[in-house]
Amino acid sequence: MSIAWECRDQADQAEIYYNQPLRTKVRRLEDENMNLKRLLRENGISWQTRPKCTKASSSRVTRSSARAVCRPLPHIPVEIQLRIMSFALTSPHPIVDPLCRSKPENLLPREKSKTNQIAIHFLATCKAYHVEGTRYLWANNSFVFTTPEALRNFSEVPLKIRRNIKEVNFRIIAKFYDDEERVHKINRHHHPDLKKPVTLIVHRRAKENTLARRGFRTYGWYQLADFLMALLPPFDPSTRPPPGASASSIPPSTPNLLPSLEKLRIDFLNFGEDMLTIPPPQLHELASHQLGCTLNEVTLTGLPSDETGLRVSNELAGLLKDEGLLIDHAPTMIAQKNAIRPLNCDEQECHYAAKVVRAMRTVTGHSHDDIHSHFFGAEFPPAPKDEGQPPFSFYHSCRTIWKRVPLKLDNTDERKWMLFDRLSGLPWDDVEDEATMFDFFGDDEEEELVCENCGEIHPGAIPPMEMMDLYDDL
Fold this sequence. Notes:
Strand order of the largest sheet: 2-3-4-10-11-12-15
Helix content: 25-40%
Shape: globular
Number of helices: 14
């Protein structure tokens, strides 16, 4: 199988840049429209066309006949109006690429058929409905972004509304390019639903007489980096410091695009095994530094099960706070020519690999995991504890931690309790034998090990550092 080189395709980037001025033109027209409305109001002219009451058939118009023709609408209490508006502006399905037009090839079949999911016309009724309806629109719905540009356009939403968004979904579809007439396929072992290899959609490019990299190329990991870059603080003219301003007069930095984001799901589509190169260094800078330690839960689906996929998973773990939950799931969809094909999951309960990141740091002050353990002196709070009372477990101690994990990825509200090992971050059932191997030691193997951390005797007691070296060797 051919390995695709990472790139940002020049033709696609040029098309994105070409469409960029359209937003500037729309903004200019909006300003002109507002100026015209202001001039009309200053001269006592209404800019709204009000419907006139139709006259009665009789030439004489009495007070009672006028009331019959122009009968007012029945009055509804404000609380009921707001409740109706909340239901009307809440979609039963996630909204894909808000504020921009979605490409049909980036949508699931059910997403193509779900038109007019919400009564968006409520916002154009009056100013009061626009203010209240906008708040319901962004607070009551979940959102899926299929391109970095769609996520970047989300900066048009006011910051006070973006602060309320706590969960989003990225759908990253790997794009492939080639300057030769070749067929590239994803192995049928990519998912059990695939009965035969899937032919990739490859965009043909002309051979250029330059030193640019040729052959089979992909926009995959760079696309992931562009998605993360779109989460960085957008430009705000009000925060620009004046020329010659002192350090004390510089305004605070602009918050991230979604300052209150807690959960992030990333669906990787067409990321075949042994098909992509290692991710660029920019991914580590974004995930572990600029956006590091900001999320409580990250769900990844469709990562390749090779060394490259493992490396990307470790890099994206840098997004999580201490004791954050990382979920790695098999592919849930695959991109085809005209649409996205969903891949079936287990009906009762999803099976995935879950891991708790840097859970020992909050107990001992340091982490046994060297990955993403550099903080440059900054202090970040750990992920908040899950609500509810976990069940009793004989193995619960300073070494273990309870987390609530979702039963189904499409419905994260239904969860179950799972016990994790703080040292390895893995579920306790997977590491119980290794974790309890030093519980009894000595010549007669009857002396119980005292935990180096809490000073008590419990299953999986943390051994001294000299025994930890032996534990690592095993």
